[in-house]
Write a structure and sequence with these properties.
With 226 residues, this protein is mostly beta strands. The protein has a single domain, classed as Beta Barrel (Porin). The chain has 2 helices and 10 strands; from the N terminus they run H-E-E-E-E-E-E-H-E-E-E-E. It has a 10-stranded antiparallel beta sheet, covered by helices on one side. A hairpin with a 5-residue loop joins strand 9 and strand 10. It comes from Acrocarpospora corrugata.
């Protein structure tokens, strides 16, 4: 298979959460899945998929890119909040390290997901009300799992980052409990869960307006320096 440039994160590589969700989609549904990104996934390259019910691997020729496996430890997301508590501006609004990112970049609505979480007033917590543009579903009844995992990904990075900062996803563990429907609005909340030198840990949840949890994640990012 080839991954289109539409689904890029940084220039030349696929968005980490999107490709994590792609790998997770080859495993049986209804489980928590841990996805480790071993190397950047190139765009428009011939990606080979090796899969069993317990392990999925993506390769570029002999280079291992991604490993996905079911695990038992489900992510614990931050709780839903009142939307009125969202009180700041998206840190990437003026100075975004990857403005063309499919998930959190400044693409046109429907071409990108435009997930731009902002501070809530609590340290290390960001959130947003996100409208799932109908074009993101590509005429399907629900958004694909790759897009759902993308929505679980970038907010966990922005929980840590300030304007001008940058990081790359290293590992994303996700559990999806329901579907995301096009033309519907969801609450996304993410918060920091500590750091170890350049490793940034965070969790996220996607909620329906009623407060029902749709999906949850925990992530490890690698902060870029210099």
């Amino acid at each position: 298979m080839k991954i289109s440039e539409r689904f890029r994160g940084p220039d030349g590589m696929a968005n980490g959460g999107w490709v994590a969700g792609l790998a997770a989609s080859y495993l049986p549904p209804g489980r928590t899945v841990e996805v480790t990104l071993r190397a950047p996934t190139p765009l428009d390259a011939d990606i080979r998929i090796e899969k069993t019910p317990a392990l999925v691997r993506l390769y570029d020729e002999d280079t291992l890119l991604v490993e996905a496996r079911p695990v038992d430890d489900a992510p614990v997301p931050p709780p839903a909040i009142e939307p009125g508590r969202i009180c700041g501006a998206f840190a990437g609004a003026a100075d975004h390290p990857f403005p063309g990112c499919f998930v959190c970049g400044h693409r046109e609505p429907g071409d990108g997901m435009r997930i731009h979480p902002a501070p809530t007033g609590r340290p290390g917590e960001v959130a947003m009300l996100w409208h799932a543009h109908p074009a993101l579903a590509d005429w399907s009844a629900t958004l694909p799992l790759s897009h759902v995992w993308g929505a679980l990904d970038c907010p966990t990075g922005w929980a840590h980052l300030t304007s001008g900062g940058a990081a790359l996803l290293g590992r994303l563990t996700g559990r999806v409990y329901g579907s995301i429907f096009p033309d519907a609005t969801y609450l996304i909340v993410a918060r920091t869960e500590g750091r170890e030198r350049r490793k940034l840990h965070a969790s996220a949840g996607i909620y329906e307006p009623s407060g029902r949890l749709v999906a949850a994640s925990r992530a490890t990012w690698i902060e870029m320096t210099g």
